[in-house]
Amino acid sequence: MHSYAERSVKLPGPHLLFGPDFSVSDRRSGDVSGDVSILDVTGPLRGERAAQAFRRHVWDLLNEGVKKLAVNLTEAGDIDSGGLGALAAAYNQVKQDGGRIAFFGAPPRVSRTLTKLRLDTVFAIFKSEDDAVAACARPVHDEPKSQGRDQDSRAWTQAEK
């Protein structure tokens, strides 16, 4: 894979109110997988500023016409309710726009949170980048726009278990 954009958002830290450093950047899958953008989250997805930065980055990609998005949580470390809300908002917006979104590499603490809240039954969550990219790379036809869970995400989640 190679970088296609130098775009990233970095919040300064550590800070008493906003926590440690948080950044989000994107790159495009460099193989034959079919135009999947990979969003790399670095640092805890906690607090309103981090959640806003994440949502803004997703919205920017959608406005550029991106329809397939794999979110790398490997370096996320931790997540709070604001971060969970940002993931849910990204999922809903991508689905409403007729796209595909998958999450991968969640560290144990984040994975436990997603499982405890049963978000693993809603989101397409994978262990590896390759699996998430392959799932997103499937052709996106003019699929019906849906809110919440759809057959594809249930199938992805079940395949992962």
Descriptive overview:
This protein has one domain: Transcription Regulator spoIIAA (2-Layer Sandwich). It has helices spanning 47-63, 81-96, 108-116, 129-137, 151-160; strands at 8-11, 22-28, 37-42, 68-75, 100-104, 125-126. It is α/β, with parallel strands linked by helices and 161 residues long. It has 5 helices and 6 strands, in the order E-E-E-H-E-H-E-H-E-H-H. The protein has a 6-stranded mixed beta sheet with strand order 1-2-3-4-5-6, sandwiched between helices. The relative contact order is 0.15. The longest helix is centred in the middle third of the chain and has 17 residues, at 47-63. The protein is globular, with a radius of gyration of 15 Å.
Task: State the main characteristics.
single chain; 161 residues; alpha/beta; Transcription Regulator spoIIAA; disordered N terminus; disordered C terminus
CATH class membership: Alpha Beta
Q: In total, how many domains does the architecture comprise?
A: 1
Number of strands: 6
| Tally of alpha and pi helices | 5
H/E element sequence: EEEHEHEHEHH
Strand order of the largest sheet: 1-2-3-4-5-6
**Poorly predicted runs:** 1-19, 142-161
Helicity, as a percent range: 25-40%
Short summary:
The protein is an alpha/beta fold. The protein has one domain (19-160): Transcription Regulator spoIIAA.
Topology, pairings included?
Layout: E1 8-11, E2 22-28, E3 37-42, H1 47-63, E4 68-75, H2 81-96, E5 100-104, H3 108-116, E6 125-126, H4 129-137, H5 151-160
Helix pairs in contact: 1-2
